[in-house]
Amino acid sequence: MSDIEIAQQAKMQPIIGLAAEKFGIPAEHLDPYGHYKAKLSLEYVNSLADQQDGKLILVTAISPTPAGEGKTTTTVGLGDAINRLGKKAIMCLREPSLGPCFGVKGGAAGGGYSQVVPMEDINLHFTGDFHAIGVAHNLLSALIDNHINHGNALNIDSRRIQWKRVVDMNDRALRKITVGMGGPANGYLREDGYDIVVASEIMAILCLATSHKDLKERLGRIVIAYKTDKVTPVYASDLNAQGAMAALLKDAIKPNLVQTLENNIAIIHGGPFANIAHGCNTVTATKTALKLADYVITEAGFGADLGAEKFIDIKCRMSGLKPSAVVLVATVRALKFHGGVAKDELNTENLEALQKGFANIERHIFNITRHYGLPCIVCINHFTFDTDAEIALLKAKCEALGSKCVVSRHWAQGGAGAEELAKEVLEIADSREPGFSYVYEAETPLWEKIETIATKLYGAAGITASPKIKAEIKALQTSYGHFPVCIAKTQMSFSTNPNTKGAPSGHTVEISEVRLANGAGFVVAIAGDMMTMPGLPKTPAAERIDITDEGVITGLF
Fold first, then answer.
1. Is 19 in contact with 30 (CB distance < 8 Å)?
2. Would you state the pLDDT for residue 107?
3. Residue 392 sits in which domain range?
4. Same domain for 451 and 334?
5. Is-contact 450 459, C-beta < 8 A?
6. What count of other Cβ atoms lies within 10 Å of the Cβ of residue 170?
7. Where residue 458 sits, what CATH number does that domain have?
8. What mean pLDDT is predicted for residues 401-409?
């Protein structure tokens, strides 16, 4: 069966009763969205402050390939397996964006028998969080243009407006647009553009905010433009925008509770991409789960060079979270792809290509253990075409590097197929105090932070930028040099060329743009030609998605 067919046959339990049964959450603190998903009140979240924290497990992956790795699937399978072993576990995931659902990647609710449900709801509109983020973002856009139209008392330089508009869809035609056409009645003429909602600073703010007060303060700190003197920033608070924006996000800040196919609780909240944003679910969701469960399994987007780095250097730095271990997800097929095998030949045994492609996972293991200072368990997400010889080779090479390597069959068997993985994870997590190393220190200058990530994690010889970009980074250093950096880079390679597989070394990472995310508290460095508004492929997934006369959605995966 397809993923959606498996999900539609799930025997879900009403979420109100399930939350009470599993964790004693009172019904009055849950706002139901139908029978199977609900929002958790911040009052209840705050009431857990004195509870002891559980152990935090991070799930990340090798550099993605068209063959697929299964990070979300592994997160769900591992959580189900830990619950099967008699422990209390909660999974913390990101909300899917509609852009990839209708584009290349598809949905993000797991797969096979390791899924979160209701799958269609989660992958489509869910509880409306992304809608609220998009509206709050575009309200600020409208207020900026309105202010200038009515006299521009703040002396905003219309050539230096930093705030684009957003939409939660892959639409390349909106990357660069002209607004205000049609004469004075329609405002003033200027260039503008759209990003996808998951790249919005408001998405990052929501994921890092810890309360309504913190949310509103962060929204007010957003730098929307510069004045005509070219140096004085204009903030969202100068337009008195933060109150209305926070009002639109009143419910979006509350964590969302759903369940797995095995009726275990998962929290799905926030959804910044890891290739163009910081790639982690909300701090509120993760901290709430840690107060409720013995073990929390969370994911960070794409490969460990992006998601795990930002999890450590942005999310953990700002929140005080301390992971106990990292699960690095890989497949034999994906590593053969990194070794040069064409996608249609990946089901054929090829030890030579696997050996060559191992360079990719080797660098990720090195980064996790040496640069992050965390124990790494390799999860081989099993495919039926994997041969015994391929698995034996991969396990031997991983363990030669000092990392446990476990074959997991959670896609086909659910939690039962991940019990061996769960036992290894529990053994490591329980045997050490939570802790890690940052890749760079807060006082390191912005340019050196970017360079450190590129050289230490990406294997680059160095970084480069035009004189204009260097000057912008230097200007940001004065007031924001203590901020972490969020590198927007292709997820497909350690380099900025998505077609360069394996573990390239000696390349140069070009920084093509920098953006200040003052409300979120980091500086975005865009590497190469990375776009913050993706496009659809020649044959988008949208062409396969349909609805029957009875209202059943098909083709979603």
1. yes
2. 81
3. 3-127+252-430
4. no
5. no
6. 24
7. 3.10.410.10
8. 96
- Average pLDDT in the chain: 96
Domain count, the chain: 3
Strand 376-381 and strand 325-330: pairing?
parallel
Question: Do 205 and 304 fall into the same domain?
Answer: no
Q: Which backbone phi and psi does 76 adopt, to 5 degrees?
A: -70, -45
The enclosing H or E element of 517 equals strand 508-517
pLDDT digits over 205-225, tens only? 999 999 999 999 999 999 999
CB of 494 closer than 8 Å to CB of 509: no
Say which DSSP state 377 is in: E
CATH number at residue 294: 3.40.50.300
Question: Is residue 469 within 8 Å of 512, Cβ to Cβ?
Answer: yes
Tell me: pLDDT of 335 over 80: yes
Per 3-state DSSP, what percentage of the chain is helix, strand, and coil (rounded to 5)? 40, 20, 40
Note the pLDDT tens digit of each residue in 122-136: 999 999 999 999 999
Ranges assigned E (strand) in 147-262 = 156-161, 165-167, 177-179, 190-192, 194-196, 223-227, 233-235, 256-260
Structure tokens at 160: 């230096």
Helices (H), 38-174: 42-47, 71-84, 98-101, 119-123, 129-149
**260 and 369 assigned to the same domain:** yes
The structure's pTM equals 0.96
Say whether 522 sits in a helix, a strand or coil: strand
| Predicted confidence band of residue 68 (pLDDT cuts 50, 70, 90) | confident
d(CA 35, CA 155): 51
CB contact at 8 A, 357 and 336: yes
Question: Coil, strand or helix: which one is 490?
Answer: coil
Catalytic residue positions? Answer: 71, 73, 94, 105, 274, 302, 383, 411
Q: How many CB atoms lie within 10 A of CB 72?
A: 25
Pair (262, 225) in one structural domain: no
Q: Please state the rounded mean pLDDT for residues 21-36.
A: 97
CATH of the domain at 135: 3.30.1510.10
Q: Which helix (H) or strand (E) holds 389?
A: helix 388-400
| Token reading at 286 | 């993760």
pLDDT, position 1: 86
- The full DSSP string for 219-270 is HHT-EEEEETTSS-EEEGGGGT-HHHHHHHTTTTTSPEEEEETTS-EEEE--
What tokens were used for 261? 């196919």
Query: What is the distance, to the nearest Å, from the Cα of residue 466 to the centroid of all Cα atoms in its chain?
Result: 29
Residue 57 lies in a domain: yes
288 and 315 assigned to the same domain: yes
Q: Report the candidate in 304, 285, 404, 407 with the shortest Cα–Cα distance to residue 364.
A: 304
Which amino acid would we find at residue 68? G
- H or E segment to which residue 487 belongs: strand 485-488
